[in-house]
């Protein structure tokens, strides 16, 4: 005779894999940004995410692959520094950054001493930002010009948002935007000099 008062069997609660993966990514971004690639530990990341460390391996495979995903997310919002877009790009670079922009720069600076992390960041920048920009530039030396534009963008962000350079932080915004737009246009516009290969 069955016990009618017994609680019915319940199916096991489903894990929310998307939420778990997102929690790991958020924790990894925080730890890599704070400590850099070499000093970041998977146990620390798992603890911050509130998950078993083994889940990092299940969802991402390794610390290196987890870092690769964090970098891809951090570098995912690019500026198109083409002649028709440079006024907007200059204004964006010279306005107050979001926390994500600051974190992306700190992630880069603190992880760059690691050769492997530097390679991961370089590949991500070249493949997902520099190449997309080069594809939009007309004329010769597009890859080199795109790399220079990325370097200008990075330098402005570093000087203004990390070092808090007073001339960039406190100068007349319209003057700064016009000066930076002119510099971006000079690189983005196809050069009039003959191609060196000719």
Describe the fold and architecture.
It is a single chain. It contains 10 helices and no strands. The chain has 198 residues and is mostly helical. The protein folds into 2 domains: 17-68, Arc Repressor Mutant, subunit A (Orthogonal Bundle); 75-188. It is elongated. The model is unreliable at 1-14 (pLDDT under 50). Helix 7 (115-136) packs across helix 8 (142-162).
Distance between the termini: 95 Å
| Count of extended strands | 0
What is the number of helical segments per DSSP (H or I, 4+ residues)? 10
What share of residues are in beta strands?
Answer: under 5%
Overall pLDDT score: 88
Largest sheet: none
Rg over CA atoms, rounded to whole Å, is 23 Å
Low-confidence stretches: 1-14
**Proportion of residues in helical segments:** 55-70%
Net shape: elongated
Which structural class is indicated by helix and strand composition? mainly alpha
Order of SSEs: HHHHHHHHHH
